[in-house]
Amino acid sequence: MKKVLLLIFGFCVVLIAVAYFMEYQMGLEPCPMCIIQRIAIALTGLAALIGYFHDRWFKFYFSLTTVFSIAGAASAIRHLYLQSLPEDQVPFCGPDLGYLLDNAYFSDALRMLFIGDGNCAEVVWSLFGVSIPGWVLIWCIINICLSVSQLNPKTALSQSN
Length: 161
Hints:
Elements: H1 2-24, H2 32-53, H3 58-84, H4 97-103, H5 106-115, E1 126-127, E2 130-131, H6 132-151
Antiparallel strand pairs: 1-2
Helix pairs in contact: 1-2, 1-6, 2-3, 2-5, 3-6
């Protein structure tokens, strides 16, 4: 069980590192939906790391990693939906998140984070034809499968691992 938690944590560290590389080295500005996905991945990794060092409640930590990964997957699915829209159906591009947090209501900023805007519809990078939220979805599904497999007593690794 501990090895699986460490593996999930490792996946999350790599995903966050790639996200920061894309932002600071490649110059790709994260959209609001990207930020939500980063938060979900960071929370997944944090839950896995705490679970690794805590010798009890493995099911609790695997449940947390599952919930956070589902949140990341849901955000990635919404993001992919926005990217698939025809240009005339893309939501209006509002101000960036920093401006909203500084000058608008917090509820407006939250709405933009969870619903996305026109900035989220733009595909700025892809690998093998899969955009960034597509890759996030793939890794969230892998994390979900790993976590759920450890919740099932028949497929879980022994606690000594």
